[in-house]
Each structure stands twice: as structure tokens, then as C-alpha cells.
Amino acid sequence: MEMALSLATGFLVALNLASVVVAGRRMTSKHAPSPIISGNPPVSIVVPMRGIENFTTETLQAAFQLNWPDYELIFCVADVDDPVLRDIRKMIAAHPLVEVHILTGDDRISANPKLNNCVKGWRAARHDWVVLADSNVLMPADYVQHLLAGWRKNTGVVCSTPIGSRPDGFWAEVECMFLNTQQARWQYAGEAIGFGFAQGKSMLWYKPMLDANGGIQALNAEIAEDAAATKLVRRTGRSVHLVSCPFDQPLGRRSMHDVWSRQCRWARLRRVTFPGLFTPEIVLGAFPPLLLGLLAAASADIGLPAMVLLIAASIYLPEMALAAAKGWRLSRWSLPAMIVRDVMMPLIWVRSWIGGTIDWRGNTMTIGTAVCELSETPVHSA
């Protein structure tokens, strides 16, 4: 029994270290030179928007200042009275040389409000290369270069995970640790060994390819468009690839409820769309190896504090080294935030198996054991 516990502990620690190494080799630093792209094809960028967010002015301005010779911005807003339209029009007036279109209205093709909002933008896009970009992504000047550089012969879609930045308060630090050294790390490690998953924050499509396979409407096959994208791309014999340097999502203020509800929502969506891959997530984080290590130490009459310190150092030091190497958020709160995250992870995993309602971009949605439904009553989006 003691040997089995020790081997299981060592395996989980080694798995964690391997993910850090693989993801670290796959990604470049924020400070790396911009990718060089030949041909400079024109690009359409479709941005679904709803309401005013923490960094709306800044993320809008970044979209208007891309270092790309030929691109159009298509802003999709479901509600004609949405206050964000004023901000968009102000930005258009300040950047008259950028080609911009504002499309309003809602096409109800699915239970996914973001996808419904994107439909009109996809149809209006003039170029073969189309980016679907969330409104809270802070696009760097070389945003298009990074996306196009990720395209290979067998690519079906190129994506970027969100990297949490500019947190305000401890719970925003916790969300940074969820997004960066946990979720982005595992997503890049998976992609590096051939298990790429789409991420809806930024998605570069070759429009003729997607249109030949059902168009944007095909992404309503799953409640989450990134899950549908992953499955569609794999059915065509192609792969999901990620940009070499993921893009920032500035966070601002977060409460414990914000972090808990977001992580539970994403976990429940993963559980519904990829249940076989979601189930093993329970072994990720520091909690499982710590528990096994403590049981092994108790069986072998080894000092428990020494075992805790050894396992914690083996888990958290590589994570912090990865964040430092890639230029991600690190502060005096990072280690406590990692510990809180890892305490939350098993609780979130358990919660994901219980159906219930969630708030997604101002809409109440119900996630059961296999399906999601959109309620007709909008609620305030946190």
C-alpha cells in the first residue's frame, strides 16, 4: 500500500512537471519578436459586444490600432439601445482610416448568446480569413500576425487561451492563477502532443473551409462554440492549433462569487461537451498529490510537514518559473492564490456534476446532465 501511494504521488507530481515543461517549450514569451507573415492577406475581425466592461475603452482602442495593412472590424451588438454603441462610434470617429461596420440585431440559431450575436458578422465578412474575437481580449499590435502564424497545412482553426492580467484584488489574482499557470498550461501541453482544443476568446477561421462544413451555424451543435469548433475540426481531419504567445485579458476587480461562478460554468460546459476528458480533471492541481503523499508519509512514518513542503515545492515552483519565463502575472499574492485555486478545484469538479442555472452574458442558462437551455429572461451579467 505504501509503495502504491508513493508511486501514485510521484506520477502526479511528474505529470504536473511534464505539463510545465511541454507548455513552456511550446509557447514564446510576450517579449519575443512578432512573427513574420508572407502575403499579408486581408482579414475580417468579428467582435460580439454587450454592455460596458472594465476595460472596454482600452480593448476597443487596441482593435483600432493593429499593425496590419488590410483588415475590417465588424462589431456585432444584439440590442440597438446597448450603451456600448456610443463607445464604438466614438472610437470610429477617432480612427477614420480603419474600415468598420456596426451590425445590430440577434439571430437565434442556438442557446449560445455570443454565437447568435456573431452570425450577422460572419455573413457580412468580406475576407476569407475571419477572426471571431471576444470583446474583452486586449489585442496586441501584432494580433493578426500571431493568429496567421499559427496556421499550418492541417489546421482547422487557430485559437488563443486568455491570459489573465492587471488583477485588482486577491480574487482577481486567483482568477489569474486559474487562467494562466493552470488552464493555459494544460491547454498548450495538450495541443503540443496532438490534443488541441479550441478556445472561443480568439478564433481564426478560413471562411471557405468552415462554410463548406456548415458555416458558422455548425457551431451551434454544442452549447459552447469552442467545443463545437473542436469537434467539427476533428471531423474534417484537421487540427486545432494555438498561437505561440497567448493574448491578455485584463481582469480588473473580481469577487469570490465571480471566480466561483465562472469556473463552475466553464467546468460544467466541459463536463457536458467532453465528459470523458473532463472526468480525469479531478487529479489535477496540488490537492490529489498532497493527499496521496500524506497518506504515504503516514504509512511510512515520515514527517508530514516535510512531505507537504516537498510536494508543494514540486508543484508550485515550476508553475511560478513558467509564469516568470512567459511574462505572466506574478506577485506576492501569486502563491496564496495558487493554493486557494487548488483548494477550489475539487469543489468545482464536484459542483460541475450537479445541474442548475448559470448566467452567461446576461442570459440565464440551465445545464443538466447532457443539455443546456436558454431562458427567455435576461439577467444582469456580472
From TrEMBL:
Query: Which InterPro entries does the protein's record reference?
Result: Ceramide_glucosylTrfase, Nucleotide-diphossugar_trans
Gene Ontology MF annotations: ceramide glucosyltransferase activity
List the EC numbers from the record: 2.4.1.80
Grouped into one coarse class, the protein's main location is membrane
> What membrane topology is annotated for this entry?
Multi-pass membrane protein
Q: Which domain of life is it from?
A: Bacteria
Q: Where are the transmembrane segments?
A: 290-317
User: Is Membrane one of the keywords?
Assistant: yes
Task: Identify the pathway.
Answer: Sphingolipid metabolism; Lipid metabolism; sphingolipid metabolism
Alphabetically ordered keywords of this record: Glycosyltransferase, Membrane, Transferase, Transmembrane, Transmembrane helix
Instruction: Give the enzyme class.
Output: transferase
For the keyword Glycosyltransferase, the answer is: yes
The entry's localization annotation reads: Membrane
User: What protein is this chain from?
Assistant: Ceramide glucosyltransferase
Q: Give the originating organism.
A: Pararhizobium capsulatum DSM 1112
Task: State the taxonomy lineage.
Answer: Bacteria, Pseudomonadati, Pseudomonadota, Alphaproteobacteria, Hyphomicrobiales
